[in-house]
Amino acid sequence: MQLLELRIPPVAVFLLAAVAMGGLALATPGLRVGFPGQLLAASVVLLAAGLVGLAGVRVFARYETTVNPLQPERATRLVAAGIYRYSRNPMYLALALALVSWAVWLGSWPAALVVPAFVLAMNRWQIVPEERALAALFGAEYEAYRQRVRRWL
Questions:
Q1: Where are the domains of the chain?
Q2: I need a surface site. Which of 9, 49, 90, 151 has the fewest CB within 10 A?
Q3: pLDDT tens, position by position, for the chain (153 residues)?
Q4: DSSP state of 67
Q5: Which CA distances in Å does 112 have to 6, 17, 20, 58, 115?
Q6: For residue 58, which phi and psi values (nearest 5 degrees)?
């Protein structure tokens, strides 16, 4: 399904996943679970998501390279500093963490199953094509970075 590669903005995929999660939570009220500190747990994960995402955007801005996920071939530099020493995709990680936070807040097991689906979709239609573009642009430097730093965490 190369047709979908680099076609749907990651934020749109995130929003579709969040809506699907809400729908699943509403459709399966008997499978919802609540626990003491649920709001706090969801808030902590959401804060972590925000910090990770902000750290990723800030490093890209510092290196003055594109943050447009639909055109990775326009990257002007390989960013391997800051949070990119720990994750090759902190902005996508932030979106996944925000979905985890949403699942915790919803207290819905069926909704939580959307998170791995989001990760799989991002891997297939966004990250793998980005990796091909970066390998073409930066060659051995990117391959060495790929060997050092994990895709997500």
A1: 38-148
A2: 9
A3: 688 899 999 999 999 999 999 999 999 999 999 999 999 999 999 999 999 999 999 999 999 988 899 999 999 999 999 999 999 999 999 999 999 999 999 999 999 999 999 999 999 999 999 999 999 999 999 999 999 999 999
A4: -
A5: 25, 10, 10, 29, 6
A6: -65, -40
pTM: 0.96
Q: Where are the alpha helices (DSSP H) in the chain?
A: 10-27, 38-63, 90-106, 109-112, 114-122, 128-148
End-to-end C-alpha distance for the chain, whole angstroms:
26
R_g over Cα of the chain: 17
Structure tokens at 120: 């799989």
Distance from C-alpha of 115 to C-alpha of 95, rounded to nearest angstrom: 10
Reading the block at residue 17, the tokens are 């996943």
